[in-house]
Request: fold
Amino acid sequence: MQIFSKIKQYFPAIEKFKVKKLDWYIIKKFLGTFFYSILLMMSIAVVFDTAEKIDDFVESHAPLKAIVFDYYLNFVPYFAILYSHLFTFIAVVFFTSKLAYRTEIIAILGSGVSYRRLLWPYMVGATIIAIFSYTFTNFVVPNSNKVRLEFEERYIHSRPVSYTNRNIHKQVMPGVVIYMESYSNISNTGDKFSMEKFEKGVLVSKLQSEYMNWDSVKKKWTIHNYYIRTIDGYKEKITKGATIDTTLNIFPDDFRRRSNIVESMNYTELNKFIDQVELQGGENLDTYKIEKYKRLALPLSTYILTLIGVCVSSRKSRGGTGLHIGIGMGFCFSYIVFMQFSSQFAISGTLNPLLAVWMPNIVYACIAYYLYRKAPK
Reply:
């Protein structure tokens, strides 16, 4: 007790932000409405998703147990976290507008509570949701997505991503570059395969072959009708052969990988995957970076959208709750559209992925600050 009294003595401002009965009331309303809105929206999402995929389930003879436990049991947390910031905004606008309509906000401010102090329990609730969202996005949902995506590959996406990829260039390790004119996902065969090895930027060897294919027993690539040029200064040595086995830092799954595979990776796995794709010079690198940056930007957007929601809905108006929800939904959907547009600019190479992801947060943080300054105190 003496420690707490000394803390209050040296930091008197802490006493102002002590959690009181009013704060608990707002936090419970905030979190309760948040989880209720998630439950309601998830029910609607499951119904629409079932209606869309029912034909695929029937055609692929997917068992009911797999549909319920492997797909929808993992679909719900994925969808909930994907739009958690939207649910946060809806929750804030809904119950705050009801407080304003019943003149409770006016009574709270009239009792001597400052507007900034009124925001304190909202920020506490936003912190709980942000931590919840960040933890689930980076460590929980990726594990459930593995099961969901595996179900989709088996029962929904019954065919390979693409039968043939063409003109493939990849760096499989530092200084080693491979090329294939085409690669078939059906036979796991690459035509017109070549591999170049560089040391300090100088070509030291080059392998060329008719084709190579994956040996599923040896877990290696078999190269057919090859010849190797080994260069040592002005000297060259040529080696020919019918077949040769080799181990490359690339596998058949790398050619049929879908862009949403990153949804099944936790934060550590995602970083390693991005480093590998960057080394290989693979496609969709900006898409993967956007996914990485979103995993931090979206949880932090909870604070911004919470502040906007309070400022929009704390004023009593003739339109009541419906008007507040309409304005709030406009802000929220414009944020989502802004995020999608900026992400597309990053994917096309026009915008840096980091800037593209954080730009909506920066813009809407400025809007939130403006609304806070204009809010009735």
